[in-house]
Amino acid sequence: MQTAERLRFSAEDYLAWEATQAAKHEFVAGEVFAMVGARQDHVVVAGNIFAALKQRLRGTPCRPYVADLKLKVEAADAFFYPDVMVSCHPGDLGNQHYISNPSLIVEVLSDSTADYDRGGKFVAYRKLDSLKEYLIVDIEARRVECFRRTADNDWLLHDYVGEADCELISLGVSLPMAEIFEDIEAA
Prior knowledge:
By secondary structure, this protein is α+β, with helices and mostly antiparallel strands. The chain has a domain at about 40-65 and about 80-180: tt1808, chain A, CATH 3.90.1570.10. It has helices at about 10-20, 40-55, 90-95, 115-120, 120-125, 175-180; strands at about 1-10, 25-30, 30-35, 65, 70-75, 80, 85, 100, 100-110, 135-140, 145-150, 155-160, 165-170, 175. Strand 13 and strand 14 (about 175) form a beta hairpin. It is globular, with a radius of gyration of 16 Å. The two termini are about 25 Å apart.
């Protein structure tokens, strides 16, 4: 992840500044990071997951969002752009600029962000009391790592590969792996 000219902001200043920018930027503890464009496979997989969730959550209080909506993690003094997220919290419906209470966050790995998605970003995401599941999607390995919060506030890994369905317990839905990786050529 590249720092955007080493700019430093308060969260409020970041929101005002970013609203004037053509490109997206994430914000972590005063620093602003430019987002790079995604590869086609990345966009297709994120779109597949969003579409599957949109269809399965229709008629529920839960709403899926795709990469252009910010996620505020107040406890980490950060704003991120997850690939997909789902909020079932009524307080998120009224905010047009970001959500703060996701139940599910999905990140599709890319070479430049894989370590951060598994490390620092997941550390920040775990500070969200509302977060129940965090999916890391590895296109190359055709694998979905589902980290699920336990009653003891630990995170348990459920690894999905092959033909298994990815179970999203927090939402009461499952996503077939074939649907997640639809239209992706075998490596």
